[in-house]
Design a protein that fits this description.
By secondary structure, this protein is of the alpha+beta class. The chain has seven helices and five strands.
């Protein structure tokens, strides 16, 4: 199998494990389909979730991460098939890097403007294919305007209390889960999905 096929198979396995682990969170009988320590690990310190009775699936990611970019098309397809009792949420991380902090705020800006799902693949393409420096706030504002968004509204949203609050909350969540690498998927505050 070629390296490209291995990566694609690994991504499919990663998402299959995430879906199955979400099922595991709801139905302990689903455990026979997964191998603890191979497909997922149980967190030593389970965390409360924000999703109420729904199963919470968090993807920790960064637009600056090439592996997150590779996973994105598979993740988008998977997200379309998520059952009603699962709540999926992305959490951008910055690891204290100024450039990734700009990208995290860009994510929350697009989310606040209701265009995140549409534009996320384009953000990844601009950064990784065209080397557009979206990790600079002014470049992000210009890029967003080139996509038909009002530049002033993008800038105001980016600098808003709401985006800053979500960004700070994302940092706190990443710290709570001790996120060391991305992409990382956590299911229901109890399980970490492995990409192996």
């Amino acid at each position: 199998m070629s390296p490209v096929h291995t990566v694609r198979a690994s991504r499919r396995g990663f998402l299959a494990a995430a879906a199955a682990t979400a099922a595991l969170a709801a139905l302990p009988a689903a455990a026979h389909a997964l191998v603890e320590g191979q497909n997922y690990t149980r967190l030593k310190n389970p965390q409360p979730v924000d999703s109420g009775k729904k199963i919470e699936v968090l993807e920790f990611f960064s637009y600056g991460c090439p592996h997150c970019r590779d996973l994105d098309p598979e993740l988008v397809a998977w997200h379309k098939t998520v059952p009603a009792d699962v709540e999926f949420r992305r959490v951008p991380v910055d690891y204290g890097r100024e450039q990734w902090a700009v990208l995290a705020k860009a994510y929350y800006t697009l989310e606040a403007l209701g265009v995140e799902e549409k534009l996320t693949p384009e953000v990844f393409a601009a950064l990784h294919d065209r080397k557009t420096p979206l990790f600079q706030d002014k470049a992000f504002f210009d890029w967003a305007a080139s996509k038909g968004l009002d530049r002033k509204k993008v800038e105001d949203t980016y600098n808003s209390f709401g985006v800053t609050s979500k960004f700070n909350r994302a940092r706190a969540i990443a710290k709570t889960y001790n996120v060391q690498s991305v992409p990382l998927v956590i299911v229901d505050g109890k399980f970490q999905v492995s990409s192996d």
